Amino acid sequence: xxxxxxxxxxLCITSTFSYAQNFRYxxxxxxxxxxxxxxxxxxxxxxxxxxxxxELGIPSVTKGFYTEFGLYLSAKGYKMFYATPVNGDERHYxxxxxxLVVPVHxxxxxxxxxSVSLFANVGPYAGVALWGKHKSYRNGKKFHTESDIFSDxxxxxxxxxxxxxxxxxxxxxxxxxxxxxxxxxMNVSKANDxxxxxxxxxxxxxxxx
Length: 209
Hints:
By secondary structure, the chain is mainly β. It contains one helix and eleven strands.
């Protein structure tokens, strides 16, 4: 998978020089709904998605075909309630992991009218965790915070990679409203007997120049 990501990235960079007139850039922002997979049954947690994106149309391949790549700050994690109350207290904790994510997708766009187009894209992503935080709560009040969650004590790896997709609508060749999802293909837990893979669903609004 990592070799595929590298190959697609090189093809996108090479194509940029050849088809610079078909290149657009802009920004996007939205909300992540994260619910990791593995040896855990957490609740969804909302987080911020914010970053820059680029789109390169390649009409020489086929009309509507394009590649999309970006540089996003993506907040992931989860919320977990204790299975049983401790001494009558209601307790829960949250894990927040903030990644710098680079997706490289291949997509196709269909023009429905002069103003409206539908699009879909799919491809790999790579990410590195910049910072994170563990918060513990008792009866709704925070009583413990831990920032060093990538140490051996908490056991999270910083690097992550996987695949994802986006579907959406473009208006006036500038505004994009999309829904997407990312699935990690890597166990980011350092513990040998514990599996934790990121998974998130995203609603975002973007603008391309």
